[in-house]
Structure prediction request, 586 residues.
Amino acid sequence: MADELKGNAILPADRRIIGKASATERDPNSSEKFSFWLGPDEIVNPFDIVEAEQMEDTRTFGLVTNIKQITDAPSHISNYISSDFGSTQSIPQTPRQGTNVAEVNVLANYDPSEPQRYPMGIYMPVQNDAPVCFADEKGIHVALGIDKMFEYEKEYNERITIPAGMIRMSNGTKVRVYLDKRYVLGPEGAHVNISGISGLATKTSYAMFLIQSILQSVGAKDIAVVLLNVKQNDLLVIDKPRKDIKPGDLELWELLGLKPQPFENVRYLLPWGKETQTTGLPNCFGEPPDQFQTYAYSLEDVVGNRASPGPGLGLLIRVPDPWDTLGALIGEIQHGISNQESKWRNVNTWSALLNGPPLMDKGIPQPIGEVRASSVGRFIRILRRVVRNRQSGLFVEQRAPRRAVNLGEEIRKIEGGQTTVVDIAKLTDEERALVFGHIIQEVYGMYAEATIDERGDLPKKVIIFVDELNKYAPSRRGESDSSILEYVLDIAARGRSLGVVLISAEQFMSEVHGQVVGNCATKVIGRSDSSELSDAAYRFIAQDVKAHLTRLDKGELLLSHPIYRQPIKIEFPRTAYQAIGHDRMR
Prediction:
């Protein structure tokens, strides 16, 4: 039959009844959950969204979390006995009676009447024998709260929907899902965190897709983007169009209402290397982009001066300092150099700081103020290891402005509609922390300290993307700590009101500081192992749903957003800029 009767209404064939709600003495339905048995040959998978009849002709939508096979056998041993005491060839004379039962978490209740009699919904338990069918796109939007976004757009004539991916249902239905701009870029909430062990480039690919979606949907002219390239040369070709986009990806881009295009108005900042002085080439993987600028750090760039403070030596000292001895010494050094005090006047290079007075005299550490010589010696050893022995070439005695720029000055030049890529792939951990900390400091300072008149000259929003966030905001304080953590915490807490948005990624969410994760309104999770999912960081995910996260494929992610009542599984297209060999997602 093309159509099927449902009460007095006629349902299209693709909205057929697939089962009926079931409430038992031991397993009752509730306001939060309900179960339904499936008709023979019906297939339902976890993360499908279904629709059930509810009281007063309303509809209750729910997310399938698990499916069980239930029979009339009281135990497994009875099934064994009924098969001729374990004969694998025998056919039972009386087949067991059984059915598949789906467990569902309630998403929302909807009153389709006009005007609505129950605008707050009816959250009574779904009644026994209530018909259940697959939800359609409109129903799924209602279930997730996306319909409220559409209503806001219509009422205020402002675009707030950001395409986030596609839900693929077991019946073949493909549904576009959206994020609410107010919870991604502020002011209601902000920040996106992406975690998982899905493999090469899956997390980065989704971050880049989402940024492209933001730029295309809510406007690029008022948004500046700063990207940190941490792996190979993944993000050094984002202005080049991809040549091998598959038809399925093109179809998905089109379904989401987006253009599969590379990033526009991109500038690249690449680090100075040990061979750059002679070759002119930056310290990066593969061939550098067609147009780029090289950045480096002299002592003055790190310390700064009275008019323009630098990121500070504290970002380079990543060792325990329980008595703040090193912190006091760093403060003394920076104050003396930036103010050109008499005994610090000749300290203008790394060599002068490490080998000459006032810190050293004939190779012997000297006390500075109340800081003992032994602590000065420790500081010298740590700093020499970072800027001399283990450095990648980033630290130079004197920076020639025509050949290498000051990174902080370049970050302060960001403009709306522009994407800035800062390469840190071949830097050491200390150097990466310095660069990321410098960027965070500059952006935070630009927005937190700007006057009303100055704010008018800044982009309305700045998006910063960083991978391996756990290195800069670890969950546990330890040897890798530096002052960068305080800036990340400030961005996470105040970014939504300032217009600074952090899109971050890491393999294990449990390794990221709880305040940073907690302030991320949107969380995206790829395939993860069960031991990681047992951490308290994932307590917002139902236990049944966690089990399914261990077998997600590449290109599949679990998406949690404040508007949604439950996390959902989505698919997304591959990026539209040129792929680099190893980062082919699937």
